Protein 1
Amino acid sequence: MNNSIIKGIGYHVPSQVVTNDDLSKIMDTSDEWIQTRSGIKERRWVKEDEAASHLAIEASKKAIMMANVSPEDIDLVVVGTISSDYFFPGVSAQLQAELGLDKIAAFDLKAACSGFVYSLSVADQFLKTGMYKTALVVGAEAQTKFINKSTEGRDIAVLFGDGAGAVILEPGDSHSGVLSTHLHCDGKDLKYLWMEGPGSSGACQINIDNIQQNPSHYEPHMNGKKVFQNAVVRFPEVIQEALDANDLSIDDVALVIPHQANLRIIQAVAKRMNVPVDKFYANLQRYGNTTAASIPIALCEAYNEGKISKGDIIILAAFGAGFTWASAAIKW
Ligand code: UT7
């Protein structure tokens, strides 16, 4: 069976740079705390009139241009996002309309920080079966529209940023492209990283009383330590799963592109796998955690910096709310 190949990539981040010092003016935090705990120096925030779809459209245009495909060739759009412009429909519907795509299959996929790898895997399966021929796969987030930008929400607020990344996937051959994907979820710990509302459960339904009585249901909450402890176990597991499925060793891999949540998580994963940390790409210092957008943005920057060459094996690895975790092994 033929693999899907990545024909084009593109990313877009908002122009508004928010440094750690900027944050320390609006909440009780410091550059020292943020850098020591996470490695993050700055992040991008969307402006009031921007949303996830604006970022997704710009990233998609760049991927389409690099792939040299026409919008009418695209027959599948999958968008990983948990911060769509509207509660429904999804960003995918806006992309279809704004990019002038034909009346094609388009849907959003809500797997938080694993959203891009999940979306890539779903698109890959459709291409493998021959149901679709050219897929646009996007990770796009405007998470900072939901965070509590005060001392009360500082544990989350300092970590997250906005952005989008996109790839164009097409059928390729049997020895390059997306070699394998592995997807996982364990919902028993979902409350360690979650946002309750708006939702269909009692106190999260949207009505004036709920919003006034439970405003904190409408912002994300995290048990950082539990997330950290799970992440440093699941990342090595799912990377090893990708290696085993392809009869590879970590030495065969040119670059691992992990979800960009925390430099200390990346360092701990490298240490657990007994691999030099520079085998793991990191750009979270400049963007923070952009949830489903972090891996495609990192993929683009790694490629632009000349860190990925034709024939290289790269592994994408994600972990996030759900908990979900996932990997993709790709021969470039
Ligand atoms: O995509 C997956 C999403 N999330 C993650 O991957 C996050 C994983 N977890 C982490 O990265 C880390 O747990 C954090 C960076 C979130 C926190 O680091 P930590 O070393 O686990 O710190 P902590 O939660 O134990 O907090 C230590 C202290 C607390 O004060 P007390 O109770 O010791 O007095 C917090 O109230 O730091 C305080 N704190 C802050 N101080 C300044 C929490 N947030 C901040 C802040 N600035 N922004």
Protein 2
Amino acid sequence: MMANLLVVISGPAGVGKGTIVKEIIRGDSSRSLSVSCTTRSPREGEEEGVSYFFTTKEKFSETAEAGGFLEYSEHFGNFYGTPRAFVEERLKTGDVILEIDVNGALQIKAAYPDALLIMIVPPSIDVLKERILGRKNDAGFNLEDRLSRVDFELSQRDKYDATVINDDLTVAVNEVLSIIEDKKKEMEHD
Ligand code: 5GP
């Protein structure tokens, strides 16, 4: 039997990782995307239980203390965590995809050495930064911080199992899918 895989997708803001993840899930009903808990407020169009489980800082820290998260980290003053029960349950029936930041990804790798870490990178860092500067909807975030966060995330790419450039969406999606398939074959032979 093929082993089920924990796949972590990270990448800087605006790189299009959400779109890639959706495409990966779409093609395979046994694959699920983990829905994280966050203390940040919902953005327009985000739905409870679909985009995130929105929660308070108090509830988040209670869950964290009770060991309810596989990993969690702080991002621009808000907390984000992967619900342990959901992931452990879904892993019994298929692959689970986590779209999380670099700090969370490294916690996952430490706890689950078989997890596959994929970083999505932009074809041009300058173009990505210009796009972030042009996004006016994230009021309250310091743009300098956002840009240095891009550099930090990209600086961690060597800690990932693979890097995929998101230039053409279809090419990037196929590349991620083939990295997943290769890893599953490798695990089967171990
Ligand atoms: P956003 O607020 O833009 O939705 O997400 C901010 C960052 O938090 C993104 O890099 C996203 O991938 C990351 N993130 C989302 N959920 C989780 C999680 O459960 N754990 C960690 N460590 N990062 C997360």
